[in-house]
UniProtKB/TrEMBL annotation:
<comment type="similarity">
    <text>Belongs to the polypeptide deformylase family.</text>
</comment>
<keyword id="KW-0408">Iron</keyword>
<dbReference type="InterPro" id="IPR036821">
    <property type="entry name" value="Peptide_deformylase_sf"/>
</dbReference>
<comment type="function">
    <text>Removes the formyl group from the N-terminal Met of newly synthesized proteins. Requires at least a dipeptide for an efficient rate of reaction. N-terminal L-methionine is a prerequisite for activity but the enzyme has broad specificity at other positions.</text>
</comment>
<dbReference type="GO" id="GO:0006412">
    <property type="term" value="P:translation"/>
</dbReference>
<dbReference type="GO" id="GO:0042586">
    <property type="term" value="F:peptide deformylase activity"/>
</dbReference>
<keyword id="KW-0479">Metal-binding</keyword>
<protein>
    <recommendedName>
        <fullName>Peptide deformylase</fullName>
        <ecNumber>3.5.1.88</ecNumber>
    </recommendedName>
</protein>
<dbReference type="GO" id="GO:0046872">
    <property type="term" value="F:metal ion binding"/>
</dbReference>
<feature type="binding site">
    <location>
        <position position="135"/>
    </location>
    <ligand>
        <name>Fe cation</name>
    </ligand>
</feature>
<dbReference type="Pfam" id="PF01327">
    <property type="entry name" value="Pep_deformylase"/>
</dbReference>
<keyword id="KW-0648">Protein biosynthesis</keyword>
<feature type="active site">
    <location>
        <position position="132"/>
    </location>
</feature>
<keyword id="KW-0378">Hydrolase</keyword>
<dbReference type="InterPro" id="IPR023635">
    <property type="entry name" value="Peptide_deformylase"/>
</dbReference>
<feature type="binding site">
    <location>
        <position position="89"/>
    </location>
    <ligand>
        <name>Fe cation</name>
    </ligand>
</feature>
<feature type="binding site">
    <location>
        <position position="131"/>
    </location>
    <ligand>
        <name>Fe cation</name>
    </ligand>
</feature>
Length: 171
């Protein structure tokens, strides 16, 4: 369908808990198409609906050649084993910071027919699943940083062109 414009840090939709998908119609199918088209750009691993301004529990992913989506996803299992892994976000572009994530994650939700879907993975896919579900819960990866690292991130953001442009547009 279309590659959608991204929302950046500071947009209220990114800090709001997304509503469940309750209609499985052409509008929802168009949203899924847009999520898939938008995540299928180079350098992108995952995209949650709030990142394109839609407050619904839906995300797409594109990791290791696997392209997919989940509606109403919930994390149902995380490994006890964790690691600190550099993480970035399309809504906080050009910046990366280490975040503690489970090495393995399992997400359950549904597809466009309302049929159950399970996605599980290790490494980058596990990181992506956790990151995108966080978005749907109104959490940015910056919220998971230690206080001193978060301070550094906010200082670094203020120096970015996208940050100044986003705040100028909203003023």
């Amino acid at each position: 369908m279309a590659v959608r414009e991204l929302r950046y840090f500071g947009d209220p939709v990114l800090k709001s808990v997304a509503d469940p998908v309750t209609r499985f119609d052409d509008t929802t199918a168009a949203l899924v198409d847009d999520l898939l088209d938008t995540v299928n750009m180079p350098g992108r691993a995952g995209l949650a609906a709030p990142q394109i301004g839609i407050g619904l529990r839906a995300f797409s992913y594109h990791v290791d050649g696997e392209l997919g989506y989940v509606l109403n996803p919930e994390i149902v299992a995380l490994s006890e084993e964790t690691h600190d892994i550099d993480e970035g976000c399309l809504s906080v572009p050009e910046l990366r910071y280490p975040v503690r994530r489970a090495v393995h994650a399992v997400v359950r939700g549904v597809d466009l027919r309302g049929e159950p879907v399970t996605v599980e993975g290790d490494g980058v896919l596990a990181q992506c699943l956790q990151h995108e579900v966080d978005h749907l819960d109104g959490t940015l990866y910056l919220d998971r940083l230690a206080t001193d690292q978060r301070r550094t991130a906010f200082r670094d953001m203020r120096g970015q062109d996208w940050f100044r442009s986003a705040w100028f547009r909203s003023a």
